[in-house]
Write a structure and sequence with these properties.
By secondary structure, the protein is an all-alpha fold. Helices cover 87% and strands 0% of the residues.
Length: 142
């Protein structure tokens, strides 16, 4: 045999001389860090999944509301409502214009009546001189 000592003893001494205890401690710390990172990652994934589920429910609710709104909306009804509202708008505008014209006419009539009232106030209760003379001719007692 080539070796003087037993190979098992040589392997045992070789392993003892390598001093792998510090390497084992380092690997333990690495494994602990990996475990902590994995837990943090799992927690973040769980939070993200919860947020995703919540957003998915929101999306589903909004999609349902949207589909209900779209199905309830009828373009022909909308068009007929627009036409009806336009017709009402023009009727109101025409009525406002007519009322404005009538208001101006009444203002002119009021001005004429004010002038007539002023003329009557100037004549007095007996009337003007021509009216007095005419009454005296018709009624001899006056």
């Amino acid at each position: 045999m080539l070796l003087d000592e037993d190979p098992a003893t040589l392997i045992h001494h070789t392993i003892g001389n390598f001093n792998i205890q510090t390497d084992k401690i380092a690997i333990g710390r690495i494994n602990e860090s990996l475990s902590t990172l994995q837990q943090a990652r799992d927690l973040r994934i769980r939070d993200a999944e919860n947020a995703l589920k919540k957003l998915s429910r929101n999306l589903q609710t909004l999609a349902t509301q949207h589909s209900e709104a779209v199905s309830a909306h009828s373009s022909t009804d909308h068009a007929s409502q627009i036409v009806e509202l336009d017709t009402q708008k023009f009727r109101v505008a025409k009525a406002a214009s007519d009322l404005e014209i009538e208001g101006e006419r009444l203002e002119q009539e009021l001005e004429g009546l004010k002038g007539r009232l002023q003329a009557l106030d100037v004549q007095g209760i007996e009337g003007d001189e021509v009216m007095k003379a005419k009454r005296e001719v018709e009624d001899p007692t006056m």
